[in-house]
Amino acid sequence: MKGGAKVVVVPPKHDGVFIAKAKEDALCAKNMVAGESVYGEKRVSVQNEDASKVEYRVWNPFRSKLAAAVLGGVDNIWIAPGTRVLYLGAASGTTVSHVSDIVGPTGLVYAVEFSHRSGRDLVNMAKKRTNVIPIIEDARHPAKYRMLVGMVDVIFSDVAQPDQANCIDSTQAAEAVFASEVEKLKADQFKPSEQSRRLSFAVADAAESEVEEEAECSDTPKEVEEEAECSDTPKEAECPDHLPEEEEAECPDAAAEEDEASSLEA
Predict the structure, then answer these.
(1) What are the pLDDT digits (tens) for 189-246?
(2) Is-contact 73 60, C-beta < 8 A?
(3) CA geometry: angle 31, 37, 42, nearest 5 deg
(4) Selecting from 3.40.50.2300, 3.40.50.150, 3.40.630.10, 2.60.40.10, what CATH number does the domain 66-198 have?
(5) CA 113, CA 108: separation in Å to the nearest integer?
(6) What is the pTM of this model?
(7) Compositional bias (Basic and acidic residues) spans (predicted)?
(8) CATH number of 8-59
(9) DSSP letter, residue 228
């Protein structure tokens, strides 16, 4: 894909999702808005047998959970050309734009995002994609936007919940924790049909975050040293016991004790 290298697009396992075979294989989908990138992603142009050209947008699994699931071997993403999708937690529209490519002009994507900052990027992206309807509202309260959404085929949820910061159980194995969460879904009348882990992509994300944390904490030792240097400084001057007679009068506490002792003797 670099320097005009020859690219072969392999027929998809999932409808609307392709693999671009080149020096570096990449996940991609047909670009609904030819010649336009959404977030600076690479584009691949392939010439068909009838001399017509089709443009594909590369889909980065490190920036999209859905792409990571596809490469992770999930059997069905339930999103295909003509599908109507309700996307909860659309953010700035990175993955939504690829879902828009997959469903095509006959499909529809209702993209719900709560943050107004990310919502501005989402709205700007939707201006060029007629099959994306941006909704700036809290996805956790569907009653607030139900009048804007029609019947859909698929609901994709990527909402940041406040309780996601809670640790479920750090002492148990990951498989046991996942199994217990699946049981909770079943208790709520859900029927999980498939489970996929994106560990290889999560490890890379964790490595990047560790590098950032180390960079942020690189100045910490200096601050600790400065605090250690200042820790020996007394808050209040103490009156030592070995002062000479001339200097004892300068210590008010010692003078007061002597006066009290003399009055008692008297």
Answers:
(1) 999 888 887 666 654 444 444 444 444 444 444 444 444 454 454 444 444 454 444 4
(2) no
(3) 85
(4) 3.40.50.150
(5) 16
(6) 0.70
(7) 232-243
(8) 3.30.200.20
(9) H
